[in-house]
Design goal:
By secondary structure, the protein is an alpha+beta fold. It has a single domain, classed as Outer membrane efflux proteins (OEP), CATH 1.20.1600. 66% of the residues lie in helices and 10% in strands. It is built from 11 helices and 8 strands. The longest helix is centred in the C-terminal third of the chain and has 70 residues. It is elongated.
Amino acid sequence: MKALCVFALLLTCSLAVRADDPYALASELLQQHHVEAAARAYTLVELESLALQGNPEIKLAARKVAAAEAGVSGAGALDDATAMYRGWQIPLRQPWNLNSALNMLMLTQSFPGPGKRALRSQVAGDEIAVAKAQLEATKRDVQARARKAFYDLLRNRDELRIHDEQVAIARQGVEAARIRYAVGRVPQQDVLKAQVALTKLIEHLVMLEQDAALARAELNSLLGRSPDTPIAVSGEYDLPAQLPALAELEKAALQSRPELLAAQAEIKRNEDQLKLANKGYTPDFSASVGYMLMPQGSSTRNTYMVEGALSLPWLNRRKHDAEIAEADSRLAVQQAAYETARTMALQQIQEALIKAASAKRLAELYQRALRPQSEATLRATVIAYENDRTDFLNLLDSQNTTLDVDFSYFRAIADFDARIADLELAVGAPIARSTSGAEVKQ
């Protein structure tokens, strides 16, 4: 009964003191206070699909793949044939008298040494493999960033809800302090402290709205849209029973991580370029066929000619040895780069797994221990308040503590999802999460 009386007094006074509500007055300055413009709420799967379709970085990488594919057919093609006209013994005093000259029409085609055209086509094909691996790496990076932005907005939604609950409780505290001050049961200092605590929530709201605006801008940019486009998210958090083993993640990374696949494709390309450089000592050929119109009065007026040429690379060893040494050095550099990338990938996997495991333990701590404890404390405080064994400010403090624990829980579980995104980016493969455990999908 006492609690109902207090609630009636609070409801009666709320209309009279609304003009003096410090939170209400300050929140009017915030144009976007809890306002999500009319926008469709996207799930994580939908956002990832839209990002893969509209992200400008992915489009750029896809164009590079198309450019590499377009160059394959021409890499192993023959050089252009050449047509030539040659006029011999043309009289200086009669330059127009071609009948007195020896006229020659010739067609020439060059042919690379055996195996060179196939190696050139193979090097161009290696370029495609590199471009495709880089495209896949870009997709993985965009997906990871989209997941982080999604969970940032999802967490922000829950934080705003908790913030509203805190504001409601703080307003009740202000009203209760005013009522008790009016009847002389508490000093004016309690009223001022309650008002300061309520006004302090404005700073919290500003930071929440800033985080939401930044997450929306990041998400819209990943989708290839204007950063100020209204957007909302819909979904739930996911906390698996366990994480994959480090050995399983490392094995998956060696087979799936795009950066490592790109480095392997680079090694393959440099190996083919070294083979092509060694082909420099294989001579090239050229063949020509021509028609000759002999001067007027010759016994044979129409004749033809056949000509062949052979390059002599052995006479230019300095050039070809330098090309081979350069190709060999590039291959060694790329092999070292792969080992460096491999080491860094394994390190990133271990770091991401450690952070994910820590975030998971923290979320479980809030879920299994802190949240039940804070809720039990709140129930005990409510019972004590109803039996007049504590004051309203203690009840307010207990409620705020419970809400703070909930707030920290949502941050921890959202941080876990962000760490899983980092882990998937480090592995280069999605990690399937379920209630029974987690596994790597290659």
